[in-house]
């Protein structure tokens, strides 16, 4: 094995170790905060057909990513013109779940939730989850 091959292997291992801990924390906090600042939706979540408010999953511990994927997907599908920020969050959560990039969040592939909440409660759950991760970085 020559020196350039060894350098390549070491560099690849370094990239993989950095990627393995990628949680997108600051990006997700920034996007979520922006949505919370812009959001006027705080109406109560009623799981009836007559309610115009979205009922989104407030995840149990260990199922955060799966629920964040489901919730942001629901927001994209129910909006006539989804916000680019919601779309970006959805794809970020989906990539983190698919690639198992964020070791700090357990990876239950199915969303299991403790309750359902409105858009504001859902966004606040995303924000507090990622602020906790940020504290430990």
TrEMBL record:
GO terms assigned for molecular function: cytokine activity; interleukin-9 receptor binding
Signal keyword on record: yes
GO cellular component: extracellular space
Key words of the record: Signal
Leader peptide range in chain numbering: 1-20
InterPro entries per record: IL-9
UniProt superkingdom: Eukaryota
PANTHER family reported in the protein's UniProt record: INTERLEUKIN 9, INTERLEUKIN-9
The protein's name: IL9 protein
